[in-house]
Amino acid sequence: MKAIDKALVGALLAPGLLLALFGLGGGAWLWATLEPAERAVLAQVLATRGMLLVLVGLALWGLAAWAVSRLHARHVAAAGRLLEQVRARAGGDIAQPIEPAGSAALRGIGAAVDELVQQRAGLRGEMAAKVAEAARHIDQERQRLAALMAELTQAVVVCNLDGRILLYNQRARAQFRLLSSAPEVAAGAELIGLGRSIYAVFERRLVAHALENIQQRLQRGATHPTAQFVTSTRAGQLLRALMTPVRAAEGGESADEAGSGPELHGFVLMLDNITREFEQDSARDALLHAFTEGTRGSLGNLQAAVEMLEMPDIDAEMRERFQAVIRDEVHQMGARVQELATRGAQDLRTRWPLEDMLGADLLSAAQRRIEALGLRVAADAVDRTLWLKVDSFSLLMALTSLAARLHGEYDIQRIELRLAPAGTAGDAKAAARAHLDLLWVGPAMSTETVIGWETEPMRVGADTSPLSVRDVVQRHGAEVWFERERLRHAAFFRFLLPLAGAQPALDADTFVRSDSRPEYYDFDLFAQTESSRALDERPLAELSCTVFDTETTGLNPSQGDEIIQIGATRIVAGKLRRQESFDQLVDPQRDIPAAGIPIHGIEPSMVQGQPTIDTVLPAFHAFAQDTVLVGHNAAFDMRFLQLKEERTGVRFDQPVLDTLLLAAVVQPNQESHGLEAIAERLGVTVIGRHTALGDAIVTAEVFLKLIPLLQAQGIHTLGQAREAAQKTLYARLNY
Taking Cα atoms as reference points, which of 164, 264, 165, 261 lies closest to residue 211? Predict the structure, then answer.
């Protein structure tokens, strides 16, 4: 029971109890002082007039209770509601007048607050005009950036260090739509979106490895380090990505306290879908192979025919036969050459991009990964001047997987890594290669074991790759073999890798900043990363949220009612992103009760042919991935989702915030916490009510209005908001 209610009960009961105690005490004293005859007379009077006295007492008590309740409503309850309205206007931008209620003094206070609110609105308007004028040139730069991004023929995505997408162009949106392997549902629910994770497309380890390479080059003083990689998506597409870093702004800190190098704030990915190129290259390779084999056969036939024609005793018929063979083979060779020329196979391109990398950096990365397996690693015999042309991610996987098998199957505890030139200048082929050795001392290994390790898919702990060590070697146009050093009782795998061209010597002391470095990376999301604090400790204004709502056939999810529509929008960095939306009708595979149609407006014909919940829920799960779910009376919607988790194979385990509970936290004295009532109190315009997406947008705007009101009560973080919400009466509702 609230403190105000307890005080009211006390105000009503206390006078009656005091009167009763005084009456009983006085009556007992009077009875004790009377003579027997007087007591008989008093008893007769009480018997005839006692009921009248009781009725008079009850009437007086009721009158007192009515007066106290009126005083409470006029002064206490009205003051509480006035306080909540004043707080709402102090913490937000609500301009509508305060509802007059209570005593004249309280109504006067409300009018005075309205005047102050209007004055503040005027000052804010003047300030906004000045800010808009001062920031006009920034808007012009943003428009130029938008125009430039729109005209780019390449897909461009900008991310912070957590992989959250901060910016993308339309070509990237179209590219990511083609990459999705999910059924096409809910227009606008593509893989890409502000605040979404790039790891929905790219493997996290691959991006981390590219960032590590960039950081190493920055530490050596490179002005424009880049990294590139090729990866396959879940939809079977091949993407080639070029990564460039986003660094600290000019004049700010460019290195951490330990002096480890320039600070990275994020990265830019320029993406190309090379699936078709790869298929074309594969077709060209097949054509070239067919041409080579066919030409080899034709040349053999030609040589045999020429040798027969050179015989002096050959007759005319035999000569004509061999001449026909020569004509046929020459014709077939011409046709093959023409086909090859027509399909443009004169210059075969590399399928997988190989990047220039300092060999010492590659071995340093390999050392860290192998040591993480529990082995000791020595890397003393390393030529630190050699630059390799490698796909470093796959090559590191190959080295680490071999080390893992040595450790797991032969109990090898120590590994040595070596890097040296493969030959001398006299041997041109060897001079363009380097030897990378993975050496160990231990028991002998059979040839069959070596072949198995080279041809089986690579595995390191829980990480697996469909590629084998031999696949990696072939990707590099390189070689690998196994050797023994009998004098040391040692053995090693030797990789013969291509060298890169000559590289300029770089030193951190000669690092020069470039004046042409991009200047358009002033995004709010660069400021915070999820790894910097636990999710419950993140401020509400910094959360990435999916605000959602459902329309259903009824109110009893456990008794067979089904979802018929899911709508959602996104909040990123404290802003509603209307363009990031999910809106999908669902075939419930059951009747829609006629009583609910006037409420949600969804006719049975509208859901016929729509995807079922088995298709829609995984798509919505992907849309809401890595975000906080927000809903109004969210327990109702979450119950519908949870009942389908086992059937659809998805699980919604992220935190959930409920605007109904949060409104009850900041405005406990209000009579209604329905969505429309809250929206009206907070000055939110209600559009599209009782459609899933419309309700989700209203809920999102309400949530943004509630954040400053929660902050005014000392509730700043997700964890604090969840704790406060669970203490409200509405948190006990179950469905």
Answer: 264
734 vs 127: CA distance, rounded Å: 47
- Spatial separation of the C-alpha atoms in residues 522 and 233, rounded to whole Å: 30
Question: CA 368, CA 535: separation in Å to the nearest integer?
Answer: 29
pLDDT in tens, 301-320: 777 778 777 787 788 788 88
- Write the CB contacts of 151 (distance below 8 Å, at least 6 apart in sequence): none
Answer whether 381's CB lies under 8 Å from 420's CB.
yes
- Asked whether the beta carbons of 103 and 79 are under 8 A apart, the reply is no
The answer to whether 352 and 335 are in contact (CB under 8 A) is no
What pLDDT shows up at residue 284?
67
Check if the beta carbon of residue 648 is closer than 8 Å to that of residue 218: no
Sheet with 490-498, strands from edge to edge, namely: 376-378, 414-421, 433-441, 490-498, 479-485
Q: What is the average per-residue pLDDT within 73-88?
A: 64
Q: Which of 165, 166, 172 is nearest to 149 (CA)?
A: 172
Strands 656-658 and 628-631: parallel
Q: CA distances (Å), 555 to each of 144, 629, 635, 639, in order?
A: 51, 21, 12, 11
Q: β-strands 387-390, 628-631: how paired? A: unpaired
Residue 256: pLDDT band (50, 70, 90) is very low
Residue 619 to residue 600: CA distance in whole angstroms: 22
Give the integer Cα–Cα distance in Å for 16 and 687.
53
Q: How confident is the model at residue 705 (pLDDT cuts 50, 70, 90)?
A: very high
Q: How far, CA to CA in Å, does 109 sit from each of 113, 118, 391, 681? A: 6, 14, 72, 18
What residue type is assigned to position 522 of the chain?
A: D
Q: Tell me which residue of 567, 574, 524, 568 sits closest to 544, measured CA to CA.
A: 574
Q: Is 323 helix (H, G, I), strand (E, B) or coil?
A: helix
**φ/ψ (deg, to 5) at 440:** -150, 160
Length of the chain: 735
Look at residue 241 and give its three-state secondary structure. strand
Rounded to whole angstroms, how far apart are CA atoms 34 and 42?
Answer: 9
Tokens 């040349």 appear where? Answer: 299
DSSP string, 699-731: HHHHHHHHHHHHHHTT--BHHHHHHHHHTSGGG
Q: Which of 163-177, 629-643, 666-680 has the highest mean pLDDT?
A: 629-643
How far apart, in whole angstroms, are the C-alpha atoms of residue 652 and residue 641? 8
Output the furthest CA–CA distance in the chain (Å, rounded).
Answer: 173
Residue 252 has pLDDT above 70, yes or no: no
The encoded tokens of residue 294 equal 């066919």
3-state secondary structure of 51: helix
Select from 55, 64, 53 the least CA-distant residue to 17.
64
Question: What is the DSSP pairing of strand 628-631 with strand 545-552?
Answer: parallel
Per the listing, tokens 């005047």 go with: 115
* Catalytic (active-site) positions: 690
Residues 614 and 563: their CA atoms lie apart, in Å, by: 11
Q: How many CB atoms neighbour CB 225 within 10 A?
A: 20
Q: What is the DSSP string of 75-117?
A: IIIHHHHHHHHHHHHHHS---SPPPP-SSHHHHHHHHHHHHHH
Amino acid (1-letter code) at residue 103? S
Distances (CA, A) of 292 to 10, 185, 197, 286, 287: 103, 48, 47, 10, 9
Torsion-angle region of 464 (φ positive above 0: left; ψ -120 to 50: alpha; else: beta): beta
CA distances from residue 581 to 185, 338, 684, 697, 703 in whole angstroms, order as listed: 12, 53, 19, 9, 17
Rg of the chain in Å (alpha carbons): 40
More confident residue, 23 or 355: 355
- For the ranges 101-105, 221-225, 532-536, 654-658, the maximum mean pLDDT occurs at 654-658
